[in-house]
């Protein structure tokens, strides 16, 4: 690992910041305590909600941890398309007996206020998704002693982030569960995602920053492959989602290995932005009609998803999952970190033996 990352964690294992509840203080603290780097997800939380979680994790571990922020999105969504989709969801409203939400209720996710909190009371790492912060923002965190990580999905985005002054890049392959962190959200790019190993190589040829690779990684041997391809560390989300410390809904956890859910797809059905999840009824019925309108569609469907979870209906939930979801292991987070580290060591020995032949 680069020196920037070795100061943060013993193993090249980062727990992905999964917005929506999975990345709670208990999970992040357990990962950090075990030698990985735990992350809190500030997305969709209030400013005070984020602050309280930071306080909580500080009470659970003295090890470094990170906080992830969502970048504000441009006001480019077509209001007419959102209204058409609202009508498309009328049957869901009746089925779950729950009204649709206000699509304009959280446009910037409290971005500026969250920045202020994290600058006034610095945390070890802050990462950004759905775009690149300004140079001034990144410089302000550098002055506070905070390492900054910017998510990228193409070599072009990597160049933008390096030019802006990011310390580390999180290179996200198309295999990743949850939202794709693309900078441009339009239909033309929905099917143009790059596989992780290829993306690592492309980005490594483009920039000189440390790289954290993420996308479908579930085993130590895959971590070894990503490191061999040029990454300095790896980030895993789905692998940690099923841990007992995870705040994910029990239905979501069980779905990872439920034979009823055989594959994942990228969809706009739940949030208006491409995100990878297990294919279920809601995705099949509404994915083809969902507009490019994030975060408006997210807030429109929030109540429906909560109602589905409350009634035990996984077919109406956003079951975010990476392509490797069937490899999920229901282990305590600390044990999972140790298992992954052991698998990585074994795979690294095999690589070294093969190279020496």
Automatic annotation (TrEMBL):
<comment type="similarity">
    <text>Belongs to the nitronate monooxygenase family. NMO class I subfamily.</text>
</comment>
<protein>
    <recommendedName>
        <fullName>Propionate 3-nitronate monooxygenase</fullName>
    </recommendedName>
</protein>
<keyword id="KW-0288">FMN</keyword>
<dbReference type="GO" id="GO:0004497">
    <property type="term" value="F:monooxygenase activity"/>
</dbReference>
<dbReference type="InterPro" id="IPR013785">
    <property type="entry name" value="Aldolase_TIM"/>
</dbReference>
<keyword id="KW-0560">Oxidoreductase</keyword>
<keyword id="KW-0285">Flavoprotein</keyword>
<keyword id="KW-0503">Monooxygenase</keyword>
<dbReference type="Pfam" id="PF03060">
    <property type="entry name" value="NMO"/>
</dbReference>
<dbReference type="InterPro" id="IPR004136">
    <property type="entry name" value="NMO"/>
</dbReference>
<keyword id="KW-0216">Detoxification</keyword>
């Amino acid at each position: 690992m680069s020196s920037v990352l070795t100061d943060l964690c013993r193993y090249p294992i980062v727990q992905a910041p999964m917005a929506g509840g999975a990345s709670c203080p208990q999970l992040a603290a357990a990962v950090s305590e075990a030698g990985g780097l735990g992350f809190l997800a500030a997305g969709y939380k209030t400013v005070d909600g984020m602050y309280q979680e930071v306080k909580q994790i500080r009470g659970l571990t003295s090890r470094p941890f990170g906080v992830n922020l969502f970048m504000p999105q441009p006001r480019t969504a077509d209001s007419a398309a959102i209204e058409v989709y609202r009508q498309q969801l009328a049957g869901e409203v009746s089925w779950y007996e729950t009204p649709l939400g206000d699509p304009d209720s959280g446009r910037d996710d409290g971005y500026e206020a969250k920045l202020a909190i994290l600058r006034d009371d610095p945390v070890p790492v802050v990462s950004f998704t759905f775009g690149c912060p300004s140079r001034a923002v990144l410089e302000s965190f550098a002055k506070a002693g905070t390492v900054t990580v910017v998510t990228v999905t193409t070599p072009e985005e990597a160049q933008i982030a390096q030019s802006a002054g990011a310390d580390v890049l999180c290179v996200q392959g198309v295999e990743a569960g949850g939202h794709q962190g693309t900078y441009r959200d339009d239909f033309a790019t929905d099917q143009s995602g790059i596989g992780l190993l290829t993306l690592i190589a492309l980005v490594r040829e483009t920039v000189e920053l440390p790289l954290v690779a993420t996308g479908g990684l579930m085993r130590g041997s895959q971590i070894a492959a990503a490191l061999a391809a040029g990454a300095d560390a790896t980030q895993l989300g789905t692998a940690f989602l099923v841990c007992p410390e995870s705040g994910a809904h029990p239905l979501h956890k069980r779905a990872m290995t439920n034979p009823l859910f055989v594959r994942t797809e990228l969809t706009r059905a739940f949030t208006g932005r491409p995100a990878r999840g297990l294919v279920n009824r809601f995705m099949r019925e509404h994915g083809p009609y969902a507009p490019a309108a994030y975060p408006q569609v997210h807030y429109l469907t929030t109540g429906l998803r909560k109602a589905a979870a409350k009634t035990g209906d996984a077919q109406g939930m956003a079951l975010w999952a990476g392509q490797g979801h069937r490899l999920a292991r229901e282990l305590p987070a600390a044990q999972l970190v140790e298992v992954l580290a052991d698998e990585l060591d074994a795979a690294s020995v095999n690589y070294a033996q093969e190279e020496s032949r």
